[in-house]
């Protein structure tokens, strides 16, 4: 018996399709239905996109658009035949379409299906369209605006706090430098006066000694003259 190695088969990776969960549009306006995909294969020349539409409350889905062999095809059946525009780019794995002149009857679910041979296994992706007289502001947008405003106020308050603190510290530093300079001036003046007084004291003592010496000499001289006069008599 001989054993032969069995070939290892790589698992097939399914194609993944992406769309928005829901989109909103106003009556008379237009809306873009985005569709992209991920595939383990290079973009094939046989790449195809198919869009289907299921009305709100309806059971059956109808094909409204198809792209294959590099050409877009708009189905002649349904209310979208003159209102669909192809805006996709297959080389960028984009199969988006635009629906013009929206109406209340357009409410429903749109399904995007992508085939990229040999990668043809995978689930479709769905997006729900809601048409309003006026597009409502989403709660997330309002919440984001509120949070952004609060953060802006907080950042402004912090900026003002640090600016005021910086000015106060700078003023305190200048005042401290001025006080230090004044203290140094006083000390220098005191030392100068002490030095001056120290220099003057010896001079005064010298003057006093000189005055005492002169007085003693004068008294001695006067005494000598008195004695000489007595001797003459």
Automatic annotation (TrEMBL):
This is Myelin protein zero.
